[in-house]
Specification:
340 residues, alpha/beta, TIM Barrel, 5-stranded antiparallel β-sheet, 5-stranded parallel β-sheet, binds zinc ion
């Protein structure tokens, strides 16, 4: 057995937990923007509060079961905006996982949609919620909306959580965000950023998602920014994401060791320092990057978050895992019917 601090997923979309097995899109997407249009932007429009709740419960449970104690979430549900961040925060609290919430503001649904997204971030932060100001991406926002989101973040003393240059469609993100970005921003993906892009903030690398969407390799070692790891909504198994980050870095440069990808995983703990005080006891192994890079399926037997044991003998203590999976499955069927 070996013990580590809590792992941090620096970019998640808990709303996508129900997406696995969803009906195929009306046609095969030809690239990144069509993947958004035909898959994710249809899915997020179909979400209601009950789906958001059970999607978050399932995502939080699965994070806990992989030793991830802290999720930095980015949410969008254009037809169920108001109150959505509290639904997610409450679900994570019920499971016992820490979450930093944000609502992804966008002009895709007109000026009013952007305004309602900003308002949800404000409502949640003003009520004392732990969060950031979310923005979908520069390429789906007007300059006015970007400036308003940055101002709202400044007002609450938090950063902006935004997708940046994930695909070629967002190629001018760096110039549009140059005067706005601050050190507490999360710049998610950065695949198409120049090496010397000049944006302040932590770059969040999502190797599995980038490969899945065929957007290219972000090669985060080329940036001066701090780097953290996220899953972009594909679970919260951060040791798995570390192994993918390692092997993808190795494909790019065979001379690098796993300590590089390990430093990115540790970058998450720099964003939410309390995670380092959480305690994860793994069933076997060694907390050494060379060992972990080649050891699949490490499982926690016990997890303690903020002093409370929320996983004992491999089972969640605050919720019934079978029931969470069953209720999430029911909501997934409702979601699939809407998408079918
Ligand atoms: Zn994302």
């Amino acid at each position: 057995m070996t013990t580590t601090g809590g792992l941090v997923c620096a970019h998640h979309h808990l709303y996508s937990s129900l997406a696995r097995g969803m009906p195929a899109p009306p046609r095969t997407p030809s690239g990144f923007v069509e993947i958004l249009e035909l898959v994710w932007w249809r899915l997020d429009c179909a979400l209601d509060e009950e789906m958001i709740r059970w999607s978050a419960m399932l995502g939080a449970l699965e994070a806990l079961e992989r030793g991830c104690t802290t999720i930095i979430d980015h949410h969008e549900s254009p037809n169920a905006i108001e109150g959505s961040l509290s639904v997610i925060a409450d679900a994570c609290a019920e499971v016992g996982v820490r979450v930093v919430c944000s609502y992804g503001v966008t002009d895709r649904h007109g000026r009013d949609g952007a305004r309602r997204g900003l308002e949800e971030n404000r409502r949640f932060l003003a009520a004392g919620g732990r969060g950031m100001v979310g923005v979908h991406a520069a390429f789906t926002c007007s300059d006015e909306t970007l400036a308003e989101a940055a101002a709202l973040a400044e007002e609450f003393g938090v950063g902006v959580h935004i997708h940046v240059a994930e695909g070629a469609a967002d190629i001018d993100a760096a110039s549009r965000l140059a005067s706005l970005a601050r050190e507490d921003w999360l710049l998610v993906h950065g695949v198409h950023l120049d090496d010397d892009h000049g944006l302040a903030g932590t770059v969040v690398h999502n190797p599995r998602s980038n490969m899945n969407n065929s957007v290219g390799y972000a090669a985060p070692a080329r940036f001066a920014n701090p780097v953290a790891l996220g899953t972009d909504g594909i679970g919260a198994d951060m040791l798995e994401e570390f192994r993918l980050a390692y092997v993808r870095s190795r494909e790019h440069d065979v001379s690098v060791g796993p300590d590089l990808a390990w430093s990115w995983l540790e970058g998450g703990a720099a964003l939410v320092p309390e995670a380092a005080d959480d305690r994860v006891v793994w069933h076997h192994g060694d907390a050494d990057p060379w060992y972990l890079a080649f050891t699949p399926g490490l499982t926690p037997v016990e997890v303690e978050v903020a002093g409370e044991r929320v996983l004992v003998d491999g089972s969640a203590t605050r919720v019934d895992a079978d029931e969470v999976r069953a209720r999430a499955g029911e909501q997934a069927l409702r979601l699939f019917e809407r998408l079918g």
